[in-house]
Amino acid sequence: MAINLQKGQKIDIGLNNMSVGLGWTPNEGTGFAFDLDASAFMLDQSRLIPEEKYFIFYGNTDSPDTALHHSGDDPTGGNSDGGDDETIVVDLAKVDPRVQEILFVVTIYDSGPRRQNFGQVRDSYIRIVDNSTGLEVAKYELGEDFSIETAVEFGRLYRRDGKWKFEASGIGYKEDLAFFLSKYYKGQIIK
């Protein structure tokens, strides 16, 4: 039976091969399509991306250690009805030893000109699915607490005492994807 997580709750993952599904449902009638983008930041012990290619998003779908694979962009929010809009497949056994944390963030593309925010999005969630069984292990439903935010940290996987744990984050920001990249990457951006 899947665990329904609350904000800030932490659990032991207990498996290596999983899919991290992220889902949302934009409200109708806002005038523009909602293009929400899921990203994963693979962070070292200093909470920085060790190399640019450890930033996983629609423009870089695979990590160099082959531990993460992004399903690709859902530019309209219509990828699925009731299912995951974007998925990141994770194999923790392959994660580069420098990486101590994998942070999952969803941002609204072009939120400024389109005047969009997470207050106009409902049914947002992050869930962990065991790839060997296809069963949902844990799910965190964010609710509608983000009235002005344009980006949300949904959750994170992190190493602690040799084990991987998952934390339901639910932290909102009034920022875009470039903010997170500048926060977690200090090298020269090539792309």
TrEMBL record:
The answer to keyword Phosphoprotein applying to this record is: no
Transmembrane ranges? none
Tell me which InterPro entries the record gives. Answer: Stress/Tellurium_Resist, TerD
User: What taxonomic lineage is listed for the species of origin?
Assistant: Bacteria, Pseudomonadati, Bacteroidota, Chitinophagia, Chitinophagales
Q: What is this protein called?
A: Tellurium resistance protein TerD
Q: Which organism is it from?
A: Dinghuibacter silviterrae
- Which residue ranges does the record annotate as region Disordered? 66-85
Q: Where is the TerD domain?
A: 1-184
Among Pfam families, the record links this protein to: TerD
